[in-house]
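Extended Data, panel c. Modelled sequence:
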Amino acid sequence: MVALDEGWADPARRYGSARRSRLLLDQAREQAAALVGCRPDEISFPSSGTAAVHAGVLGVRHARARVGSHVVVSAAEHSSVLAAAAHPSGAAVGTPRGTPARAGSPRTDPADHVTRVPVDASGRVHLDGFVRALRDDTALACLQSANHEVGTRQPVAEAAAACRDAGVPLLVDAAQSLGWERPAEGWSLVTASAHKWGGPAGVGLLAVRTGTRWRSPWPEDERGGGRAPGYENVPGVVAAVTALEAVRASAAHDAARDSALIDRVRRVVAETVPDVEVLGDAVERLPHIATFTCLYADGESLVAELDREGFAVSSGSSCSASSLRPSHVLVAMGASTSGSVRVSLPRDADEADVERFLEVLPSVVARVRALLGAEGL
């Protein structure tokens, strides 16, 4: 309520209510910096996690245009990272095709613009391949802290060390993990989204280490050093950082509880549902995510039937679930995509919720298979 009452004014102005709003914003930035592990002046708050990724990727590509246009990513990155890495212009977003490029600008449509490094069957990037992909003309490398669809943790510290040796900045998409822990050391940029840890939608986080070359790819703006152009949502930022502090305070307890529940989901699903494959690393994973695929069933029907039972799950790609497109993550892992179910435990999930889910799931899968004429296969 204090943020709503005191944070309504434009923090860029100098009148009294604006100064109070600025104080709230600065305090939130200091709190966020302590939770991320960086300096307050390295933190910005874009309008979403996607906006943070786009600003981070395109800003580094713009600043390092003379180095080259090559970007290294894992094949299992979030779609926002893949889209920003593949964008035809890291130097001037929106520049019409045919516009003469400045000397040193990235090539418009290079055939080898992005290297997607394969992942293994658990969704973890092949570290050797990631390191080998770094080149003299690599402007940026991107690696998520943990996979958003199957929960597998990535070798961020090792990748960061390799990037440091190669002189390449590393962007870490920490959207799924920041509510649990700080990112591993060695990163150059970190991005996240408040709604992932229970904060309000419409608030992202971008941290850019001092010394990392970054230049705004957008029209020059006086706010946020160009990293988060526009009018800061001060009440939203305060709420987001407050929520992050709260979940971090109980992270150890919640992680132990959720991990035990997800272990049970993984075990019981494999035991009670025929023709199912449980995905992701069984140990090196986030504590709250379980994903499995059911042969002879389709994800849309499973989502609808589980919704009728009171369970909100997703299928397809977690970053484009509204279209139910096949998951590029599961494709990269070599897993079946037709009957995927992704379970993400909310912070208030308890054992009774999980037990009821496990009780109804076998009958739901059987019902969907029967509807599709696959019963008994």
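The mean pLDDT is 89. This feature is highlighted in the accompanying rendering.
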